[in-house]
Description:
The complex is a heterodimer of chains A (260) and B (655).
Chain A: E1 8-19, E2 22-33, E3 37-41, H1 48-55, E4 63-68, E5 71-72, H2 78-84, E6 86-89, H3 101-107, H4 117-122, H5 126-144, H6 160-173, E7 178-182, H7 190-207, E8 210-214, H8 218-224, E9 227-232, E10 235-240, H9 242-247, H10 249-256
Parallel strand pairs in A: 3-8, 3-9, 6-7, 7-8
Antiparallel strand pairs in A: 1-2, 1-4, 4-5, 9-10
Helix pairs in contact in A: 3-6
Chain B: H1 2-9, H2 16-26, E1 31-37, E2 40-45, H3 46-63, E3 70-74, H4 79-90, E4 94-98, H5 104-113, E5 118-121, H6 124-133, E6 142-145, E7 159-161, H7 162-175, H8 179-185, E8 192-197, E9 207-211, H9 212-226, E10 233-235, H10 243-256, E11 259-262, H11 269-276, E12 280-282, H12 285-300, H13 304-326, H14 332-353, E13 360-363, H15 370-378, E14 383-387, E15 397-398, E16 411-412, E17 416-420, E18 425-430, E19 436-437, H16 441-447, E20 454-462, E21 468-473, E22 478-479, E23 485-486, H17 488-496, E24 501-507, E25 514-520, H18 522-531, H19 539-544, H20 546-563, E26 574-579, H21 599-605, H22 607-614, E27 619-627, E28 633-641, E29 643-644
Helix pairs in contact in B: 1-2, 2-3, 3-4, 3-7, 5-6, 9-10, 13-14, 13-15
Amino acid sequence: MSKKIGDVILDLQNISLRFGGVKALIDISFDVREHEIRAIIGPNGAGKSSMLNVINGVYHPQEGKILFRGEERKRMHPHMAAAQGISRTFQNIALFKGMSVLDNIMTGRNLKMKSNLLLQAIWWGPARNEELEHRAKVEEIIDFLEIQHIRKTPVGRLPYGLQKRVDLGRALAMEPQILLLDEPMAGMNVEEKQDMCRFILDVNDQFGTTIVLIEHDMSVVMDLSDRVVVLDYGQKIGDGDPDEVRSSPEVIKAYLGVGH
Amino acid sequence: MSGEADSLSLDGMDTFPRLLFSHARNRPAAPAMREKNLGIWQTWSWGDVGEQVRALACGLAVLGFRRGDNLAIIGDNRPHLYMMMTVAQCLGGVPVPLYQDAVSAEMLFVMQDAGIRFAVVEDQEQVDKLLEIMDQVDTLEHIVYADPRGMRHYTQTFLHDIRELMEMGRVHDRNHPDFLDIEVDQGRHDDVSVMLYTSGTTGKPKGVCQTHGAFIAAARGGMQVDKLTGDGDILSYLPMAWVGDHLFSFAQSLVAGFTINCPESAETVMTDLREIGPTYYFAPPRNFEGLLTQVMIRMEDAGAIKQKLFHHFMAVAKRCGGDILDGKAVGAADRLQYWLGNILIYAPLRNVLGMSRIKVAYTAGAAIGPDLFRFYRSIGINLKQLYGQTETCAYVCLQPDGQVKSDTVGAPAPGVEIRIADNGEVLVKGAMLLKEYYKRPDATAESINADGYFMTGDAGFLDADGHLKIIDRAKDVGKLSNGSVFAPNYIENKLKFFQHIKEVVCFGHDRDMVCAFINIDVGAVGNWAERRGIAYSGYTDLAGKAEVLELIRECIEQVNADLVHDTMVADSQIHRFLVLHKELDPDDDELTRTRKVRRNFVAEKYGVLIDALYGGKDSQFIETEVKFEDGRRGKVSADLKIVGAKTFPIVKRAA
């Protein structure tokens, strides 16, 4: 399979992030190209999640620039990132446990809803038609992720692997341009990991979504990603395709280790 | 309704394509097929189906499908795959449905044996399987897929989207408007209409060739007995390669004109069942068992009042429900109680089961426990048994309304003759018999005797009312070393009715006593264990718990107590048993794809366990290789405890 990797969609330049005296990220630059799967790896505390939080506007770096489609991004909030087409999943699943799978994924469409709150509340006129349209989109996602059988099941009752899939479904419901995945395979068994890998590749392939992911499972990272950034103690120590990264002595020393 | 009856009696409605186009002409707006797609039930009317079959048939002809070709059909139950059956028949070809969960190596034999040139499959998964074996099937030329998802990157020119085929066909149909009608006109009732491969409990699968005439006769006979009409609904979820689905979903729907409903996916069948509320339902006993187990588990979690009500009215139903359904005389007090029970318990329960609208439900494929059978009938579900094989279009015996008995499979169906051979084997004759086994004249000759009777391989007898009672497979019926009859299936079925027991394999032929392997039902036993605070990690761990062994021992002793009263098999009480460390699994070849135990294979594979059972040991270590669904292999090992069960002295019948 050959896919077309496009231009740089997201360019991070000299990002530094401090919490008081703690330097979480030190002068990090890397870019993400359209349609690629970009992995961020590193040992615990390396700054991976901070990096993801910078990208979707939860943290504001003290130094550095973020260019999104060539335009410099000003100080922004997560909902603005969302409106721009960046959506994410969370390391610790953040779904509404008491709501059904369907409703959870529906919440992902919220930003796309145009009718006002009042009309939505009484489910009338344009609001009703709009919801039906969104429902159709959500059903496509349910079909895509093969979770028809749990459509009406409350999320809290589902096994962990399926909850992760629903989390992905909600992120997809926004029809994002960039999808940020924070440890999508954490805590999964082999079969669930295989399923998740397949879905990530399918999302990337069918919708052309650019994906930035953090993952600990090295074999997963190496198989999935087009390019990998390696962080260690807030610094970038490697950047390149999986083979380059795997053979870089610094990376081996810091992370991959020998016989570990 | 009378319109349909007339169209059926008209001469010439003797092939499936003719039946289809007659429905399309006479009742174009009536629903023919439904499928749940993207959360919504989509409907095809008979008119739509007629148009699409026409287009697809022309398209397939353009690709080069010729009279006499076999068309492989692989996938879950989907409207387009059902249509492709008729499509092949229109062109004088033969559809060959394959089991969709088979791995490619298992498909290889059928693909080669049937000389498949064209295959229609559901999705990418099936396409991949065929591509894997393509170099070993030299005949295979074209693969048509119904679901384009994930197929974007496949560039092979022999792969076709079914929509592309339909468009090609529409163009061809416009240019040659007579083409298809001429093709359909050439069809004859004694042409082979379908080839169904037997599951192959023994040896290689054989292709059973059935004609239009055979399946139409079987479908009409069934309609006559059950008074089926064109306004019914059936949930089509059992494998299309199975004769039962072919008779009920394909043949009978085309003959009677009712609607087939395809579930969204295998996992949603239960939800879809409730949404559709079929009038006509078919399931193997294990599905009915599974449903009942679920109900019972949920009842255990219910509040005290609900439990009391449930048990009270279930006792009422047990007493008189079956008789009320059969139209027999029942006292006024019981009738009143039953009426009340119907409002409070039975009707809501039927609704939960998705069986509120059921006119008739069938079970076959294996024997059903009498208590299980009575349970469904007692709550007002007209559950019946039927008996038949792939070779007889699944049509030999049916239970007419009002004459339903739990221990027989019913009276010979209209047009079927039954004879019992000297060795107890059931022989049958009628229009529904197979034409032949594909390219196997030797096997055909072996299975049909000089008088034209098909030898079913089942042992049984006709009772006083002329109903057939099946004891076991003729070849499985053995003798204990003291000479008394040993019918393993008979005992196993008794045990399998316990909700905690999923599978049993009994041994005893040429031995001095009967011993058994047990598979626990991990859902039911797991629930039971949780309730008692017994911690376990998985099947193997749970199966080895002393409390579980004790639970199973009680079940076995109950069966032993029951067997004492059954003079023919009183000697077959189970003396010793063990609970297997893994579930018997079709992926490990221990069960067939229709989930029947492959007795000899299991006996050979676990020979060391059998030796331990009969050798008087208390425990035995075993390590077994298992195949996972993705094809990887692993090992399961355990030290199995062997448990003795109490047996009862045989009471001689008072002279």
